[in-house]
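Sequence of K+-transporting ATPase KdpF subunit (Azospirillum picis).
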Amino acid sequence: MSMPATGFEGAKAMILDYALAGLVTAGLLAYLVYALIRPERF
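Predicted 3D structure, token representation.
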């Protein structure tokens, strides 16, 4: 029989999801700003 869900595991998963999404978004934003500043490199 499994233990009842406390919600903590789900909260940890959501924090990881949001952190990963934030990193991807920041990286994409940096790439696009660099491409706007230096279009001759692309």
